[in-house]
């Protein structure tokens, strides 16, 4: 089989790889890479929460490799997603633009999150320029490993949007679907479908076993080694999905965590990232490879304790614009360039990774589009740590600006967890948490008098401020006004209720993958 | 003045001290201490929460010295208080016995916490043997710096219970009381009252300024240097109270934290402990000094965001038997003996510090009393890390066993936050948190069918387990039965409603301090 499918095979493959690296490494000794265009690796976790890492306070302390990555790099306790849901967050990362600007949102109802389920025909607009497209200008080779989530029709797939390689799936690994009406999600190798989840790519729903993370790691190594051989700078977008429900881990990790299956998945990702960073050092490219670790949105608390992570001290989780929905674990690593053991309190977000990557690569940003991402290099390289200190963070659901953070103050213009209707079916975005008038099941408008929290004193958003209210508001209001005045929303691509965006998925799910290639191993 | 009362004086004093150390240090070079009876330092914080340290996930990451202490020592993420309130917790630490055994509890009403306010005449029973009394057998000199809280009548004070020196107060630093009916809390130097809070020992309620932590640090240094000179092993019990409301910090720290005044207090304590550890190294006694850092109970969430800390991902706070009430930050430090950068998942508690200290000192435990504390040295010194793996943790309010933890399972036999009556006055032990049927305002009995949580998957106690319920219960039940069968409660010392225990405090508060000495500087 093409992939190492058993535990033993994984070990053997790793040994072979190490041997191979040793040869490559020797061949490269004395050829330091070009620091002007460093390799860029973005490690994007799926539904992992801020509180899932030891360094961010997870009591189980089971992420020694990520904790070591932080000790060797820069930790960002104030790092944000661009949206509390997967698809828009990922679209924002790759475009450097808020979902309301790049089209990855819906206007079907007020303040609704939207993503790309199997049933949707929408996808990333052809007008949007993605990071790998920009990096091509400097000769970067780009690969995405894992979840895409920017549309599953052929014209939306990664290789149409600047990536040179892809291993992974267009959608979440929900399933198994064992009826003919709803097929399992396809897994691609570049433009070819090479199988489907639960079929060629097993995920055992009973035991939680799957070796997908190991495959993702191998795919990363293959790509890196190829680029070293070709002497090309590379961009690796490693979007592993083991921590998204249904969570999974490979056999050596199952049952190892104090936290159950979710923790097993975290341990395997931690171990994989540890091996990746070790490989970069072994290959002697660590001084020429910028690595950034983060997650796409907050822990999916509504998935329950067996399938979801921790948002630490923050309020609520995925789908909400409270801190638990959008505050992300984040670590930057670049030995020799980023000072080890540092903490940056800079407010930053996934869109900054677009702009920062361009700056690192030496590519000018596109001048005909508005970017929301900022260039973090003055902070990362400690050239001008205060350069971006007044930048705000915007929290959206759909096209509604729910909240804004400026400094330590966060103003909520709308508050909402989820609808009564949904809540009564047992779906709870804030289990065990309740802030009266804030975590409500109706959408509460506060636009005339936003609720303001001080996130330094009160990271859990439990105590609205009173004393310094007017002062805080007077600083936030002009920022919001300016943002709204200059914002031009684009056409929403995820309007689930539009016939044009939705089709009967049974047909499309079967047909699209086969349009590219019918046979797979 | 006896104390450095201004910022500049503090600096000058420190410089003088450093010079003094340098002399002492030279004098001691080549005289390694006796490892069989190492010095013991217990740093006990007041109302500091598990989530207040960077290493435990505080987003502000403002405890670099404590984080470094953890990196140089052993971190305990599963460390507990013996009670969710100050007095009983402190009594348990110093006796190695649960409050229900050592008498520091009340039976006035069901499941009530009790402590020693100014109004009480009760105190630690004369039958209880305290740690410094035991350590005397090996020639240890003992000092308490800071809050005592085991009774304020003359017969209960520290020097009657084995301590050789004391600087601090018998009660909390509430105040100022500016009427003749209720005097301010006295501050003692050994047996003499040397002033009162808000009078000779200023705490500015408006600005939060007080140099008490600096004084406490100096008192610690004075004692350590004296014992080095005398070549005596020492026990220092450093019970600083800056993080107890009203929180305070000295001028150089005021306004420095992202977290407001509470964070300022944490920063000053962190800085002080950093200086203390540095001094131990400088004095060349770090290999002969066991240092343990922890707190007396969970963060006092009911004090509001300006005056309370963080319990990280845990449920509720001080006064409750949820994790937020009793899980404590904990770090052991002993260079050359405790392996650096280790994490122990051992369930442990403050009472273990009694038994562990005896073991370190080479003193046999008293054989006529039941101890609840275990000897942690097999874990600390990595001799037998699994030796204590099945030990339970008991959570009491008054004489009611509210909950038990065994492994990852925690069974609640009674659940309660606080009364409706108290709640309606605005006192909330679980602000922003609500677990239906658990964080209730009536005492809920579950003795026939305890609510069980898996703290690995669900540290926040939000999702009662169902699947493995019977299995977990069958393991916990015999432990609880055994505990109850062998438990002999002692006479409660804190029955506030008994005339014998309470007196009109106005009289006693004035008279007691003067019984020892009338004049003070």
Could you characterize the architecture of this molecule?
- Chains A, B: One of its GO terms (cellular component) is lysosome.
- Chains A, B: It is found in: Lysosome.
- Chains A, B: The active site is at 86 (nucleophile), 149.
- Chains A, B: One of its GO terms (molecular function) is N-acetylgalactosamine-6-sulfatase activity.
- Chains A, B: Keywords: Calcium, Disulfide bond, Glycoprotein, Hydrolase, Lysosome, Metal-binding, Signal.
- 2 copies of one chain form a homodimer.
- In chain A, helix 1 (7-28) packs parallel to helix 6 and helix 2 packs across helix 7.
- With 521 residues, the first copy, chain A, is α/β, with parallel strands linked by helices.
- Chain A has helices at 7-28, 64-72, 86-95, 99-102, 131-135, 212-230, 261-282, 323-326, 350-361, 377-380, 420-423, 469-486, 505-516; strands at residues 39-45, 74-75, 79-80, 141-146, 165-168, 186-189, 192-196, 234-239, 289-295, 327-328, 331-333, 342-343, 348-349, 393-397, 400-406, 409-412, 414-415, 444-445, 451-454.
- Chain A has a 10-stranded mixed beta sheet with strand order 7-6-5-4-8-1-9-11-2-12, sandwiched between helices. A 4-stranded antiparallel beta sheet of chain A has the order 14-15-16-19, with helices on one face. The first copy, chain A, has a 3-stranded mixed beta sheet with strand order 10-3-13.
- In chain A, 58% of the residues are buried.
- Helices cover 28% and strands 15% of the residues of chain A.
- The model of chain A is unreliable at 1-13, 21-34 and 517-521 (pLDDT under 50).
- Chain A is built from 13 helices and 19 strands.
- The first copy, chain A, has 2 domains: 39-390, Alkaline Phosphatase, subunit A; 400-486, Arylsulfatase, C-terminal domain, CATH 3.30.1120.10.
- Chains A and B meet through loops of A and loops of B.
């Amino acid at each position: 089989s093409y992939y190492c499918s058993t535990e033993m095979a994984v070990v053997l493959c790793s040994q072979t790889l190490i041997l191979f690296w040793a040869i490559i490494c020797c061949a490269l000794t004395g050829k330091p890479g070009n620091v002007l265009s460093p390799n860029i690796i973005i490690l994007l976790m799926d539904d992992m929460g801020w509180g899932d890492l030891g360094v961010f306070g997870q009591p189980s302390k089971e992420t020694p490799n990520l904790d070591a990555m932080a000790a060797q790099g820069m930790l960002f306790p104030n790092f944000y997603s661009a949206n509390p849901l997967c698809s828009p967050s990922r679209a924002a990362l790759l475009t450097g633009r808020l979902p309301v600007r790049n089209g990855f949102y819906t206007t079907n109802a007020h303040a609704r999150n939207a993503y790309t389920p199997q049933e949707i025909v929408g996808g990333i607009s052809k007008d949007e320029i993605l990071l790998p497209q920009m990096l091509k200008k400097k000769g970067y080779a780009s690969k995405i490993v894992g979840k895409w989530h920017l549309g599953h029709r052929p014209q939306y797939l990664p290789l149409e949007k600047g990536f040179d390689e892809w291993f992974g799936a267009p959608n979440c690994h929900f399933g198994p679907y064992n009826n003919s009406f709803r097929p399992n999600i396809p897994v691609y190798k570049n433009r070819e479908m090479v199988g489907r989840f639960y079929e060629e790519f097993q995920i055992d729903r009973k035991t939680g076993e799957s070796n997908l993370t190991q495959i993702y790691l191998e795919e990363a190594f293959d790509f890196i080694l190829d680029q070293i051989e070709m002497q090309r700078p590379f961009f690796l977008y490693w979007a592993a999905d083991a921590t998204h429900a249904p969570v999974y881990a490979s056999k050596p990790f199952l049952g190892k965590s104090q936290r159950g299956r979710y923790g097993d998945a975290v341990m395997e990702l931690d171990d994989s990232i540890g091996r990746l960073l070790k490989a970069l050092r072994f290959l002697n490219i660590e001084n020429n490879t910028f690595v950034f670790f983060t997650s796409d949105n907050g822990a999916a608390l509504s998935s329950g304790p067996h399938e979801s992570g921790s948002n630490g001290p923050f309020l609520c989780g995925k789908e909400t614009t409270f801190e638990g929905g959008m505050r992300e674990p984040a670590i930057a690593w670049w030995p020799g360039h980023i000072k080890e053991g540092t903490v940056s309190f800079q407010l930053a977000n996934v869109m900054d990774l677009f702009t920062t990557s361009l700056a690192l690569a030496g590519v000018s940003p596109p001048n005909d589009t508005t970017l929301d991402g900022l260039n973090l290099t003055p902070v990362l390289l400690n050239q001008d740590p205060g350069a971006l200190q007044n930048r705000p963070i915007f929290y959206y659901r759909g096209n509604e600006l729910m909240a804004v953070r400026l400094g330590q103050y966060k103003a909520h213009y709308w508050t909402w967890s989820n609808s009564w209707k949904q809540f009564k079916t047992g779906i709870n975005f804030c289990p065990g948490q309740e802030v009266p008038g804030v975590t409500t099941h109706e959408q509460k408008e506060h636009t005339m008098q936003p609720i303001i929290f001080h996130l330094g004193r009160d990271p859990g958003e439990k105590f609205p401020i009173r004393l310094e209210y007017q002062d805080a508001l007077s600083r936030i209001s002009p920022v919001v006004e300016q943002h709204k005045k200059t914002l031009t929303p684009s056409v929403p691509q995820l309007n689930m209720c539009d016939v044009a965006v939705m089709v009967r998925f049974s047909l499309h799910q079967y047909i699209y993958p086969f349009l590219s290639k019918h046979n797979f191993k």
